[in-house]
Design brief:
The structure is a homotetramer. The first copy, chain A, contains 6 helices and 10 strands, in the order ββαααββββααββββα. Chain A is of the alpha+beta class. The first copy, chain A, folds into 2 domains: about 5-135, Urate Oxidase (Roll); about 145-295, Urate Oxidase. Chain A has an 8-stranded antiparallel beta sheet with strand order 1-2-3-4-5-6-7-10. A two-stranded antiparallel ribbon of chain A has the order 8-9. Chain A starts with a strand and ends in a 7-residue tail after the last helix. The interface between B and C is large, with 94 and 93 residues.
Chain lengths: ~300, ~300, ~300, ~300
């Protein structure tokens, strides 16, 4: 045999768990999409088809529902921590686990000027993410968000860039800057108020995006990341992926019209994609927690 | 020849027009997806390939951008009215036109407790729709929304239904009721404040959804529709399509756990689909404006 | 009360039924997405919440699975016919029904040069559609397909079109013509070999698309439709919706390169949308079977 | 300053390049989605907004089109190689590059029993992928595919698995096994016939999937991977991500019907996700080429 099984993991992806708290007439709701992946002594399942160490993915799904009942969902990070630690500590063949949670936000409907007790509206396209990895005795919590679409209608330029024989782009000192942001940030520990810290990080990023006069999306990301690192002591690393959702100034001169930054075509593809990894000085790396497999959902 | 060209239309679909108003430092934004379809003397283009009466779809796209500059976007309905009337009145071969506009909402970012002048966040998955049809001398305006996802965590039951030999569903006197609502409503005229009326209709529908103790999604739709008809005199017809986004109570008994309406599985497919057409007594029908072709986007 | 319930229907959408025939080691597979909508005496469900005439959508789902077992899936049209007639004839409050079926195609995997008995590969993005409406004593079968993406790399031009002050498009006598076709055709009766006729119609349309030198997509659609009407006697009506998937010739002159129809940018949006309804002379109309509600999936 | 820019990259994503070869009346077509990401001396763009070393993403897009003209598209791997090497060798600030290419397949339309010269049908949902990384003087080529949906209607079981207090799944000795496969494989070098090798790897994987009596999807993946390693000497590593697309046997007993593996419900979510990394003994690792950033498209 010339082939070797180098690594493997398996789990249940996208279990849609909705948890209602109805202890009082004023309900609460948490709406999650839970994925788990287990690592451990599962090589025989691959090599010979022996399933004796394999806890079915269906069981992992059942656990997600049962934990939502027993422990509730204090936050997506806490929920992922509980599940991941259960997998590693309570299932003998499991040596490592990763639990990814997406949370969809709901806001209360307003009726006669007051928030309703049990009626909800899905708010935003934005998805909150939490990823907990327990491996080699280390627990890493990465919080984040994706699909946060933000736009500045001025306060952004793009000039002074490198030009070669394939460059046709014109410089501009006033453009629309828009992105559908993916941001993830790693916490130093696990003992924090995840909901409050999430809200704080998000507010800092939005404020930094709004107030910096942007010379490039790169500069904006760096500014957002450093503001988070400086203002939130629990955060040791921030990673961004920001598609530059191009809004092209439409040429209206053929119709005898000026267009001083008023009418834009919002293009689909292609798009720029700007990425950055910003770390707190002296932070311990956590590469394993950041690694993504070829089929990451 | 045994075949006959019975009807036809052509146009440009999904032109993504973003209009910024920057007359003062406090900008405004309207973000539209514009589709137009023209009817008229275009049979030769089909029968012999003669394009002499065919205004290119590319030109229709150009018009959308030019009109956004010249007229601005007071509301999606008004913008669609202007374009549709231009097509019919100014392009000789055009006898009828339909303009569909989707609008995506943005809210101002909050920085240091204040709304920012030129930074925006995409709000909600919900899409506002406007459809204007000009044909046979008649102009019809249909406003609407889609992808408004709402959920009640109590106040809904489903009992007393018909049972046959294929029925296995259990009755329930307390369930989660959720839908991703499509609602469209037709106005009697064109001389109204479209933005204000849209907001009013939406608020009435949400309030009706929230406050009715629901015996069925059918009943909820009827209640929402009649409230709109009764409270908004400009509306003469309301059409609903409401997918019943099933939230199944997860069975936790195998794990020794009760589940009194707390943990649900949010299922994808299949889903119930409930539809209703509610009209104001005495309203003139407008079937042509409601008709959708086989490839409606 | 000033509001009136004008019409309504309800049903189960997108039940994913997979039927395996395993009577011999050489299996067969049919993979369906089934949606049903019922009309009848259901007004009380809307007006007062009385469900006593309402057969749950869950029951409709159960029927789809049970019918797949008992009757098999001879073709999507036959399966839809059986279900629709059952609803109307066997469920007392039901006066009309529409059953829409999408079928996904699978081809046998090839192993050592031979087709495998029970291993399948999903073939194509193309979806076959069937829609059966039973109402007012009339049964109408509409067959079709969608997402059939076809492209001609020459043999298409677009010249001689109408020009106005908003027209900037250049004429071209050789362009890429591509569309993601939606086609639906209505049969005169129900007593035919649906699978064989489907294959015949599809082949005729593709041949017509390929061989006509196209002066416009409109002309191509008319040619495809008339060929079907003339060659397939069972078809009395064809409806097309053809998005013109623009392939723009990329301007390479800034880099000192010619581009004689070799390098194109495949754009997403906007796109032209060309539609046509072609009928056999003397055919009885069937508007009700073609009508689509505001929330048609 | 307590924050540090640890790493960064930027580029143009999803440039849709279609290349027609029309040297003879029998055309050829290659349909690509090209994404590039550059690494190098771009820190000033982040830290101070200085763009003087930044080649615009728009220029990267232009290059993709120009290279399609000048070099053609021999294969997606070769095309990605040419682009990646150009970025690293010819753009001074660039020290590393990654080019990802997706290819969509087209087959010739058949007209009167013969393949047509210039009419094409999009074939399959399956996407071919190529990823070339040039960094630190090393060039790595990873070929692959995604969305290859395969299904076995027998020849698969799942028994003997681990059970705990959350396990409710029943064992089965005959089930439907289906997956939408993601497979990527790394080549030892760059001097090979990429199209022929791709076809060979794909055929081996399909044959292995079909012929192994599967005790688990894990075993099937291992079998597929080892067959590739053993039969294709150029491949040094294979990575799989295989969602277990569950087909649940529908319970028809309430209707008095048996269901011996004939009628299934094809579920959407959740799904199992099985992953494996299989390497040739003695192969040099190439972790950098496999790493994916948080916003990988």
């Amino acid at each position: 045999m010339t082939a070797r099984l180098q690594s493997h993991q398996y789990g249940k992806a996208e279990t849609r768990v909705v948890r209602i708290v109805r202890d009082t007439p004023r309900h609460e709701i948490r709406d999650l999409n839970v994925s788990s992946a287990l690592r451990g002594d599962f090589a025989p399942a691959y090599l010979t088809g022996d399933q004796s160490a394999v806890l079915p993915t269906d069981t992992q799904k059942n656990m997600a529902f049962a934990y939502a009942k027993v422990h509730g969902v204090e936050s997506p990070e806490r929920f992922a921590l509980l599940l991941a630690e259960h997998f590693v500590h309570d299932i003998a063949p499991v040596s490592g686990a990763r639990v990814d949670v997406q949370e969809y936000a709901w806001v209360r409907a307003t009726v006669d000027g007051a928030e309703h007790d049990h009626t909800w509206i899905r708010s935003g396209q934005e998805v909150r993410t939490a990823s907990v990895t327990v491996d080699d005795g280390t627990t890493t919590v990465i919080a984040g968000l994706k699909d946060l679409t933000v736009l500045k209608s001025t306060g952004s330029e793009f000039t002074g860039f490198l030009k070669d024989e394939y460059t046709t782009l014109q410089e501009t000192d006033d453009r629309v800057l828009a992105t559908s942001l993916i941001a993830q940030w790693r916490y130093a520990g696990t003992d924090l108020d995840f909901d409050a810290t999430y809200a704080k990080v998000r507010a800092i990023m939005l404020s930094a995006f709004a107030t910096l006069h942007s010379l490039a999306l790169q500069q904006t990301l760096w500014h957002m990341g450093t503001q988070v690192i400086e203002q939130v002591s629990e955060v040791v690393e921030v990673r961004f992926a920001a598609p530059n959702k191009h809004h092209f100034l439409q040429d209206l001169r053929p119709f005898g019209l000026e267009n001083p930054g008023e009418v834009f075509w919002a293009a689909d593809r292609p798009y720029g994609l700007i990425e950055a990894v910003i770390v707190r000085d002296g932070a311990t790396p956590a590469d394993a927690a950041w690694s993504r497999s070829v089929g990451a959902p």
